[in-house]
Amino acid sequence: MKEKLEQLYQTISAEINNAATVAELEEVKNNHMSRKSELNNIRKQLKDLSIEDKKIIGALTNKISQDLQTLLDEKQEVLKTAERNEKLKSEVIDITLPGDYLPSGKMHPITKSINEIVQIFQGMGFSVIKHENSPELETEYVNFDMLNFPQDHPARDMQDTFYVQDRDNVILRSQTSGAQIREMLSHKPPIRVISPGRVFRCETVSARKHNQFHQIEGLLIDKDITFADLKGILNEFIKIYFEGARPTRLRNSFFPFTEPSCEVDVQCIMCNGKGCRVCSGSGWLEILGAGMVDVNVLKNVGLDPEEYSGFAFGMGVERMAMLKYAIDDIRLFFNNDIRFLSQFKGK
Ligand code: PHE
Q: Taking a C-beta distance cutoff of 8 angstroms, is the pair 289, 263 a contact?
């Protein structure tokens, strides 16, 4: 029996040694270490031996079993590591390979400019008007009547404004100023809002004019608001937008819904006032219209002009973007030419 055990040890340990894969090793284990294995048969026969032999053979059987188990465990570890290394080697990634090109979207320059301008006014306490108070499809009543446009004002002409067919008095808004009316009708002062949006005019399209463009309207209504407040807010805006204080000038102007009214010019950012092609030699660039909200408008929305006053302003977004980024043709904003659009990075 002793020889048998030693021989078994030789055979099994050789098989363990020769196993080349984890699967092969598993087979050795199943053949020789299971209940039906020869080693286990010997274990079963131990009970028939004399006490003396039982001691010796029993101890030997245990030792051999343990040794084989140790051999098996060690070999298993070696094979597993080898197999893992092999797998890692075959899955290796070449990190020096150039990556795939993923084109990323860019912000449209008009959206970017609107965001920039809105942010500046938000920093001064203005909030963006609710969408429902600034519709693109507007009534003539809000776009003109409530804003104090007389019945025979030329802007009401079909040549200037797009009218909606079969709908009396419905137009594509020609200005964002209607938002002033809707805001004052739905909110009590103090009011401090801006309203960015698209407007439409029946224009022949050229490098300087388009039949659709964007405006940003501002409205502030409170007690004791004066023209000085308007000037202060606009100067602060210009300083931030054009990245530095610039000489500005207010020109007397007229809008039916503001009195007094003005237009604001900034010194030309291309030639610093010397006169160039962009400013048509004048040295100045017109950037917006503004004024104190007309008493008639306040009355139209049911506000007492003795109690409240305020100012409004409106600027063209395309114009602001053209000035800041030196763009000389408004049509570029609407052509969707990717070569133009991809130049604008942005938030
Ligand atoms: N709505 C005017 C325009 O389109 C601009 C403006 C707005 C002027 C607010 C004064 C006050 O030209």
A: yes
